[in-house]
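Much of the work behind modern protein science is quiet bookkeeping, done one molecule at a time. The fold becomes a row of whole numbers, each drawn from a learned catalogue of backbone shapes. The protein below has been through that process, and both of its lines are reproduced in full.
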Amino acid sequence: MIVSGRHRAWNMPLIQEQQDRALNSYAALVRVLLEMGATAGESRAVQQDLARPLEPIRHILGLPHQGTAHPVTNCAETGRSVLLEKKERLTAMDKIKLIGNFTQKGCLHQRGKDPVWYATVSDDVIDEDRSIKRIRRKFRIGLVSELSEEEARLNMAQIIARLTTKTAPTNLITVRQLINEYFRPQVVATMKHSGQTHYAWLFDRHIIPAIGDRQMRDLNLSPLQKLCNMKLETGLSIQSVTHIKAGLSAIFRHALALRIIEGSNPASAIRLPESSAVEAR
């Protein structure tokens, strides 16, 4: 009994050292596995290989014997969940990294009685439900009478180059969504009551009823100019239409600042007649 007691006392430091070394090794291993996105099966395989020389203290570490299945415990389930969650996060990150990361030639074609060159290309977009998906988009290039096929293909190549080098998906948000989800809470809410009333009049009476369901990415100068011209034709004063132009410009500036859209502010190019010309009408 005395010998046995001495044996236990002599081995305790060694066991403690082995246990500390094993725990440190497992901690390092877990960090490596999580960074690499290992699956639960891969984690168990490496765990068993690492634990093989530590068989004498396997019971201390709470590990199953070689060749046996892992017990179904809360800790085991938690470990697998962590690995699976990490794998899912990496998958989501990979999807983001793949935005615009594809090769395409595009499709050039003509449409209309007065033929127009159109390019159909693939693009990664954020849908209305905030999901990322790849769709086919059509871009108007120009009149066939004004552009040769070679020039049209060059324009299409420039469009493809811009889409394949972007770092974020194209946003399909509508004017209504931009106003209600971004502009009102982030801009209008910071204004005095008079400013809030003014923008409510602009949005609810003029802008949203006219173009609220249009996607921001599809709007250029033409529909915005048409909106202002229509307001003038209905008898709205030049001052009121100037306010509408300013409101449109503010919306696009905010969308550009948030990188929801790319390019320039089309509303800044809206042309309004002089006050004297309107009064003469």
About this structure: The radius of gyration is 32 Å. The chain has three domains: 2-97, 107-171, 175-280. The longest strand covers residues 132-143. Confidence is low (pLDDT under 50) at residues 1-10, 67-100, 277-281.
